[in-house]
Amino acid sequence: MSEKKTHFGRAGEYFAMSELLLRGWNVAVPVVDVGDDVFVIDDNDKTTWRLQVKASERMVKEGPAVPGAAESFKFSLSRTQLRTAQPVELFYMLMMRLGRGWRFLVIPREALSEIRDTFVDAEREGPGRPPVGDASAKTDGLALVVELRNEEVSGWGVSLGAYLDRWPEQLAPVAGGPGSVGQAPAQGAGVAAN
Fold first, then answer.
1. How many Cα atoms are found within 13 Å in the side-chain-facing hemisphere of 136?
2. What is the mean pLDDT of residues 48-65?
3. Would you kindly state where each structural domain of the chain is located, as residue ranges?
4. How would CATH label the architecture of 5-58+70-122+134-170?
């Protein structure tokens, strides 16, 4: 595995794009990345979504590995991006590298924002500092630690199992359209009309 963080992050983005391409979506990468890593487009009706891809290797814990223990993955998010609705809505694709493969979470921005609100507002018991709400935050950075044990996954105090290795209905496979096998080319698409 590459020790270069930029290479690792890009590998996660390309895996995400590959999966979307296999599902029939077209993908576009902005020349200048100002927060959106990928745009996904349905070539049939031009439905477009934004995708923020974050990749993480498991956090290494002190001491010997414990069989069956949860693996932890840390993701750095932008508070502003999480809180800001846009006309073209955003999905987070959180990539977790385990051994030679990837596990992933695909979470709509609005759902992840609600999960964060619930986490910040929850009553706390025991030691530790409470999470910092947006109004008190001194930076735009926001940490999300995801715990994964087999098919159980959680973050910010709730189960994220509904998002593990699953696609939301908005990103359902795209069938037909330009590039489909057996589809006749459109008039004026390089084919002379008789």
1. 5
2. 84
3. 5-58+70-122+134-170
4. 3-Layer(aba) Sandwich (3.40)
Strands (E), 11-160: 26-28, 38-41, 48-57, 71-78, 90-98, 101-108, 141-149, 152-155, 158-159
Residue with tokens 């990749």, as numbered in its chain: 55
124-153 tens-digit pLDDT: 776 777 777 776 677 888 999 999 998 899
- Which two three-digit tokens encode residue 38? 């990928």
Q: Sheet with 38-41: list strands edge to edge.
A: 26-28, 38-41, 48-57, 90-98, 101-108
Region class of 99: left (phi > 0), else alpha (psi between -120 and 50), else beta: left
Strand-strand pairing, 26-28 and 38-41 = antiparallel
Query: Is residue 90 a contact partner of residue 54, using CB atoms and an 8 Å limit?
Result: no
